[in-house]
Amino acid sequence: MSLRKFCLVFLPFVAICCKRYNDTTTTLLSNSAKGIFGRVVLFDENGDSVQACSSIQVEFECVDTTSGDSLGSRFIYHDSTFVVHTDGFGRYELLDAPFGKYFIRYFLPGYGENRIYNHIHYASKGDTLSDIILAKKPNATISVSKVELSSDKKVLYITKKVDLTGTQAKEYGVVSHFFFSKNPYVCDTSYFHEWVSGATFGRGGYSQEVVVQKSVDELFNSEGGDEVYVVAYIDNLQYYSYQISAKKYAFPNITSQSQVVSFKLDTLE
After folding, report:
1. Contact between residue 197 and residue 176 where contact means Cβ atoms under 8 Å apart
2. Structure confidence by residue, pLDDT tens digits, 130-145
3. pLDDT tens digits, 218-254
4. Contact by Cβ (8 Å): 218, 91
5. According to the CATH classification, is domain 140-268 in 2.40.50.100?
6. Fold of domain 33-135
């Protein structure tokens, strides 16, 4: 067989075999790595993606609760903190992370932080976490002027006005974040129900007054009197929250609290 014929017949086969071997090797290395891996994505105040994702601080607090006494009671015996930073693609890794319960904090100046609460990691394997969002507070204000009920007493009509205050010429969007409570001091840290309504889009200086609709079903599942108090905030189009305790959440990018409006549940009967 001539050299030319040999090259045409066998070399493509060799190239294919080498490619498959390299792909498999990469996969095996990725699957066999031990630690915690993930990625952070950034969004600006307009809800647009930000490409530069380097130097985001990721703080891991590890609490190991595997030890116990002769009665089987569990107690904390190890508490460690590890800090890493993302690369230019927003990727991070904590190699050889010890076993334990992890509370993970993501932080970059100018952005609302984010957290992962109570993640259990086993040292014998690698964990790839879901993408984490960091975003900025949006430029807008909101007011709530009226709350009414539908004729069948099943839908709440809330009249809101959103003013976009950004200075850029481009269009952007924000969402309205509502909190409900039986307490007149309702806010993002004192509520029994929270709800995000539809987005408002426009350029800086744009103002929109609309009526949004919400089912009242969730508003009955709480203790207290018949009067319900409502407050609204503006939130980033890429909104998120994070858990900070067993029953408490934080909303890092809400801004521009509206006045409080109330209505009585007994009018639904």
Report:
1. yes
2. 999 999 999 999 999 9
3. 777 666 567 899 999 999 999 999 999 888 999 999 9
4. no
5. no
6. Immunoglobulin-like (2.60.40)
